[in-house]
Amino acid sequence: MGYPRIGARRELKFATENYWAGRISAEELEATARSLRGSVWTELRDAGLDTIPSNTFSFYDQMLDTTVMVDAVPARYRDLTGLDRYFAMARGTAELPPLEMTKWFDTNYHYIVPELALDARFQLADGSAAKPVAEYVEARKLGIETRPVLVGPLTYLLLAKPKPDSPDGFTPLDLLDSLVETYAELLERLAGAGAQWVQFDEPVLARDLSGRETDALVRAYQRLGGLSSRPKILLATYFGAVTAASLRAIAATAVEAIGLDFVAGPGNIESVASAGGLTRKIVVAGVVDGRNVWRADPARVKSTYAVLLGLADKVELSSSCSLLHVPVDLESETALDPAVRARLAFARQKVTELVALAADLRSEDPWATPLPAVPADPQVRARLDALGDARRSDRAVRFAAQRAKLGLPDLATTTIGSFPQTAEIRQARADHKAGRTDENAYIAAMRNEIARVIRLQEGLGLDVLVHGEPERNDMVQYFAERLDGYAATDHGWVQSYGTRCVRPPILHGDVSRPRPMSVEWTAYAQSLTPKPVKGMLTGPVTMLAWSFVRDDQPLAETARQVALALRDEIADLEHAGIGIIQVDEPALRELLPLREADQEIYLAWAVQAFRLATSGAADATQIHTHMCYSEFGEILSPIADLDADVTSIEAARSHMELLPYLRAAGYANGIGPGVYDIHSPRVPTAEEIEANLRNALQAVPADRLWVNPDCGLKTRDYPETEAALANMVIAARNARAAV
Ligand code: GLN
Ligand code: ZN
Description:
The protein is α/β, with parallel strands linked by helices. The chain has a domain of 302 residues: CATH 3.20.20.210. It has 26 helices and 23 strands. The strands form 7 sheets. It has a 7-stranded parallel β-sheet. A 5-stranded parallel β-sheet has the order 17-19-20-21-22. Helix 7 runs parallel beside helix 8, helix 9 crosses helix 10 and helix 22 packs parallel to helix 23. The chain is globular, with a radius of gyration of 27 Å. The structure holds glutamine and zinc ion. The site of zinc ion (ZN) has 6 residues, from loops.
């Protein structure tokens, strides 16, 4: 369905960043890109794949490529040309802000959101901007026949947003017919160049579609399918099951093949069976997980295949979605435990796996090698069984106990955890990791930083302090490195957006905590000040969301194991005299299933895991949580169910939109709606922060209202951070005096 574009050693990232910095020319960047594309195609051919995708390369993002291809470039970028225009849309220039960027479905990949005007005039770009044609021809010159991959018209339009100030009632879907005509022209051009197949990616089919959207789907593919001169069409869906109704609608069009994701959407089996009508289509069965790092289970592949055989004209095998979402090559991971490694497959291995699975299915006596089982940790399992569903005392009881113990003022001030990560801190961590400095020097450097941050916060007059998180490379990786059942990779990079890559840890077995993970740093910070220092942990859902997670048991079960480890950590923090503990869940919203029908079950286990982690805390221990997103309507009731004593949440960036929801929901615990946006270096004035606070006081009583920024400060610099926090403290004092 698609392949990583970054290169096994992130060659594309480095070349692109060199181009941005003016160190290499556009031609040099293009040359790196061409060589990466060529080596992917060659590799896929040599691995023995029967058909090979192209146009899966991108300098930044495939949605942005589509915007360029159909000439939907917003007016403000039109003075620029070529790569400069492209990167201006992706990341802005000194004068121009970039286009918006957001998450690609429920993955950690981000796409550039098309911004479409009512009077948009799509037209097919020429030359290399007609990228699918250019790449097809490029591959063909290497003697490799490919299947260009295109973002489907429905997905493109449903992920687009109307240009600001568009007339009411306009939705990008109104532009369908014009967009489809542009795609029709593209198909003709591809056919002219010799293309036998194209792939239209329509992952929106894994979401709930309205009647109008389903009609649009049918209209688009009837038109494209009906073209007299065109390549054959594979309509690829992924990230979940497609409804039988959608399948029936597709089956009625002339597309030749339908791609279905049987990993994220096991329900597709049922859909295919009840839709019927696929007997004249090829079903491309996504059986190798494109989003996770495990080898496929041959028994499962076999049974999927067996069911499909009778229902389709022909069955082909593929990855469940583009392999963009997994690291490139397991061969680079020389330090992994061989027992874990034996269960893994990265992109390169998954291609080999597909070829082998297909060969096995064709053979007389398939399936010699079952997957190795995951060893269980009986102690973890027994402890979890004994725990059951844990709850804390009533909120009123806790509130009174905490008030008595902590003695905090109304409108208490705090921060979200991290302080700026200076070059010196990063250097100290890197030196330690590389063995250039010894343990004692490292500890001294971190303690030094913690002491500095504590003094700074005392000077600013904050009420609840933090240690500043200097020792954390990343809020998930830090804990993953300290938990059994987790492994880190050396080169397991995955594109998150543009040149930004992440290296998610791998949660491969039963999770447990061999020793305390954060207690020493936090206790040291507390030893320096009479003010309360807030302990800082990453919650179970976020630990899963930003990792590759074992798939041999339900996520809910794995979340409980992580929660148990956190529960132990919280007990140890309490023992060390920490009275306030924050369990961050910034990814709670992100794992929300695409279909509404699946959301309740997810939220139930997510909430349960958080409660399992936190419910061992004494009544007088104040549990905080933090999240950063702004779609409050759908998420506020689960947030209330977490039953944290205090929740800090992004609000300034979304203009305090959360307040009416809070009032409507009768939210009764403490809440800290962020009073300033930390994503920009701008220093907010005390007056504007105070205005936000007065606004918030309309919805929340003063003894439950907290004063904090939108999120952690690690990406900021010190001067602006100090100035902003000083203004925040002044604003809190003024608002307090006015209550
Ligand atoms: N405690 C973390 C920090 O301050 C929270 C980060 C986040 O919300 N993503 O950095
Ligand atoms: Zn945050």
